[in-house]
Amino acid sequence: MTVRVLVVDDHDIVRLGLRGLAEAVGDWEICGEAADGRTAIVKAFDLQPDVIIMDLTMPGMNGFETAMEMRSVTPNSKIILFSVHNLPLPARNVGADAFVSKASGIRELVATVERLLPREREAETAAAVPLS
Amino acid sequence: MPLRLLIVDDHDVVRLGLRKLADLHARWEVCGEAGNGENAIAKVEELAPDVVILDVAMPGMNGFETAMRIRRMAPATKIILFSIQEVPATADQVGADAFVSKASGLSNLVATVERLARG
Q1: CB within 8 A of B6, min separation 6: which ones?
Q2: Could you give all domains of chain A from N- to C-terminal order, each with its CATH number?
Q3: Hey, what domains does chain B have and what are their CATH numbers?
Q4: Distance separating alpha carbons of residues B54 and B67, to the nearest angstrom
Q5: Which of residues 6-35 of A touch B (CB under 8 A)?
Q6: At what angle do helices B12-23 and A106-116 cross, to 10 degrees?
Q7: Is the pLDDT reported for residue A130 higher than 50?
Q8: For residue A124, is pLDDT > 60?
Q9: Which residue in A5, A85, B38, B91 has a CA-CA distance of 20 to 30 Å to A39?
Q10: Do the chains contact at A84 and B12, CB–CB below 8 Å?
Q11: What is the mean pLDDT of residues B68-75?
Q12: Cβ atoms A15, A33 nearer than 8 A
């Protein structure tokens, strides 16, 4: 099952790194990118991604504000805040499904995506297995 | 002749991005990576890179201290500070050849690497 990912970070080096991660993981597809919250909301509405990986500190709307607005335009997307900053509250309290620190690494990010989407993956796998 | 780069950043997503960037430039070759200043210094000694792309905020030794030590041990190596932070003085005063803000974009970093490689 391909996981469609929207990447949101004002630093293009991070967006490029996440593209590299998607290639390494294999079943992630970067369906879009955004460098600020307002663009991210438009892209999220258009693309309806499975997962949104989003920075906290961005010019204009920050990740918290963006996550809260995204909830209404793409309610089924999983939102992961991915930041150098620590989160003062649980992710859910700020409109996200998870928080991953950039310091904890890409392995943690991959594990978080896997954790947030397992049921859908299992269902797809079950559906793909032919009944004999 | 390849341009040999050492990438130093405590965030592996940034190191991965720099590797992807290097892939886009035929002459660039990432000869090594480090996640902190101490490892960076060891890698400079081992690999003698042409250019070090060096983060500023890292656990333990920060980029400024790391740059100063690399400068002493490998004076011919070009050092680019690549950070979200502002540099308090000119890059040269903190032991580097250039400073590129992560916010300024990859084209700025590419141009800086190419400029330093030309000597």
Answers
A1: B30, B31, B32, B33, B34, B40, B43, B44, B47, B49, B51, B52, B53
A2: 3-128 (3.40.50.2300)
A3: 3-118 (3.40.50.2300)
A4: 8
A5: 10-21, 24
A6: 100
A7: no
A8: no
A9: A85
A10: no
A11: 95
A12: yes
Instruction: Give me the interface pTM, i.e. the ipTM.
Output: 0.91
- Give B10-45 pLDDT, tens digit per residue: 999 999 999 999 999 999 999 999 999 999 999 999
Single-letter amino acid code for the residue at B108: N
CB contact under 8 A, A106 and B20: no
A51 has a pLDDT exceeding 90? yes
Option in A13, A18, A103 nearest B10 (CB): A103
A13, A16, A113, best to mutate vs chain B, most B CBs in 10 Å: A13
Q: Which of B15-19, B23-27, B49-53, B102-106 has the lowest mean pLDDT?
A: B102-106
Does the pLDDT of residue A132 top 50, yes or no?
no
The C-alpha atoms of residue B71 and residue B74 are separated, in whole angstroms, by 5
Element (H, E) at A16: helix A12-25
